Amino acid sequence: MIRPSLMAGCAAIALFAVPILAQAQDTTALEARIALLEAQLDALKTEVQATHGEYVVQPSSGAQDVIRIEQRAVTPASPGPVGTSTEGFRIGDNTLKLGGFVKADYILSQYDGGDPTNGDAIRDFYLPGSIPVGGEDEGAAADFNARQTRFWLTTDGLIGGQKIGTRIEMDFQVLPGTGDQRTTSPSNLSLRRAFITIDNWLFGQEWSNFQNIAVLPETADYIGPSEGSVFSRQVQVRYTRGPFSISVENPETTVTPFAGGARIVADDNSLPDVTARYGLSRAWGEASVAGIVRQLAYETTGLGAVDSTATGWGVSAAAKIKVGETDDLRLMLSGGEGIGRYIGLNFSNDAVLNASGELEAIGVVAGFASYRHVWSPQWRSNLTYSAQRVDNDVALTGLMANRSAQSARVNLIWTPVPSLDLGAELSFGERELESGASGELNRLQIFAKYGF
Fold it and tell me: Is 333 exposed, middle or buried (0-12, 13-18, 19+ CB in 10 A)?
């Protein structure tokens, strides 16, 4: 009786134990398979990212004038020989890179003070000093062009233990070519930047050290807030150490004749313009302050000869402040005396001649504010206001001198794929003379731009 009972009990235990053991084995196997699948998925994600890249928003820098969404390959960092690069190609001891963009614009403009002639620069970009004043109000005029197309070439390398680089940058914006829009719509190649860097030194043509291009707003227009911006490219020698830079730059003096008249571009300076700039970068954004001291000079010979010099000076503060994770506020405020050619594309002259043939510096205050809002990774907008006020002595300059200019613009830019921007911008600009006469410009600009 005992043995059959024991055998029956063992059989019952076996019936219950087998499913439990099988379930435990299945659970262990399932967990192992899940772990294996997770490892394979991680490896696949890493491979896809390394092959196709990811979309990232690149901030503007000294070497990039327009913010755009770019494609950047995500690859693990790996040590390599000094001076090597994963981009560009090698020529001797240098790494050479090519880049640029192609840009096509449609511009519809309406001027209430006259119609600029065909080929006038204001038909291609906002030039506040050229807004017509005193003429007849005409209908809107349309212009198509691709002259903002740009390309650049850079080299860098370690040569003799020193880091040496170069940059050559050109576009077609300023100089028209032979012919006109009736046939081939040509444009000549124009030099923008050409310089050499040796460690902390820069020699050649570059943006003025008095200017901070990192805070310029993103606009469809070539420059955007022209009247409120320091804007100058010229040959210079610059030394940079950390956040501080100092330079000596090409001098040039623009003069208003006594009682007014056509601008005189003097070529009589014996001393270079001297600039200094200090910049800082923090978690909230970046800012800079710059100063300039310059000689103003004008000399003529013969009857009524002029031989006069004066001193010009200026200060410019600029900032780009982060607002949330994607938006930012960009600001610039500049002022001084005898710095007219540096601000607003020479909206006002540096100096005016008095009755005795002596130069007197002209004062100016200018600035802009721009808010950039990112709607989504592919859509963004910029709202910008800019203004300049000139402190003329009308007894010397006359009533036809520029008194003030202001503009406002808003745009919407779409980046459907990396490096391709499609956008539209509405802008309003106004120029006023000391006489009280004024002219207005209303403009719609649509563009397509692809960077490479």
Answer: middle
